[in-house]
Amino acid sequence: MKKEFVVLVDNKGRSKGKMEKIKAHKLGVLHKAFSIFVFNEKGELLLQQRASDKYHFSGIWSNTVCSHPRSKELLSKAVHRKLKQELGFDTKLKKSFKFIYKVQDKKSKLWEHELDTVFIGFADENKKMNVNKKEVQAIKWISIKDLNKSVKKNPEKYSYWFKIALKKMKKKKLVALKDLQKFLK
């Protein structure tokens, strides 16, 4: 299997080289990442359940796609590559905000320490998707109201970074359909 690398950064997002992905997750080193949130015309969010055999944070629900850019790959290219790779479709995406977080997966003992850039887009809920089962166990569209109830009732079923990004999106008024439409114009 080909080795994968992540782009190491400082707290300001300046590149500090690269490191093998698994090593970065073992050591908890800060690196670049991105999270994609795709909504439909009803304002529902497309969630993915991470594949059960992923090496960390397996089987939990998260935003539409989350991953890392390759070395020397622009974030604007990486988000479209991963959307196509994991779900088999592409759509227009707009960069929204960034945040840094650090969390350890209790099962694998691996770390996520990421400068996560959030991208938002729209897609037709009837769009044909080709789900990559190596990456994604299941997908579902969910209203923000139902999502909030589910996260409150079962927070352990959702990724740590997803819950942070969702809170920030609420603060920035990026979860209501009319606000999303305005943002994406």
Structural write-up:
By secondary structure, this protein is an alpha+beta fold. It has a single domain, classed as Nucleoside Triphosphate Pyrophosphohydrolase. It has five helices and nine strands. The chain has a four-stranded mixed sheet, sandwiched between helices.
Attribute tags:
alpha+beta; Nucleoside Triphosphate Pyrophosphohydrolase; 4-stranded mixed sheet; 5 helices; globular
SSE topology:
Blueprint: E1 5-9, E2 15-20, H1 21-27, E3 31-39, E4 45-50, E5 61-62, E6 65-67, H2 75-87, E7 93-104, E8 111-122, E9 136-142, H3 144-153, H4 160-171, H5 177-184
CATH architecture: Alpha-Beta Complex
Total strands: the figure is: 9
- Give the integer mean of the pLDDT values: 95
CATH superfamily: Nucleoside Triphosphate Pyrophosphohydrolase
Our count of helices gives 5
Level of helix content? Answer: 25-40%
Domain count, please report it.
1
Low-confidence stretches: none
The run of helices and strands is: EEHEEEEHEEEHHH
Based on secondary structure, the structural category is: alpha+beta
How would you write the strand order of the largest sheet?
A: 6-3-8-7
This entry's quaternary arrangement is single chain
Radius of gyration: 16 Å
Range of strand content: 25-35%
| Main beta sheet | 4 strands, mixed
Per the CATH scheme, the topology name is Nucleoside Triphosphate Pyrophosphohydrolase
Net shape? globular
CATH first level: which class?
Alpha Beta
> How far is the N terminus from the C terminus?
41 Å
Compact description:
27% of the residues lie in helices and 34% in strands.
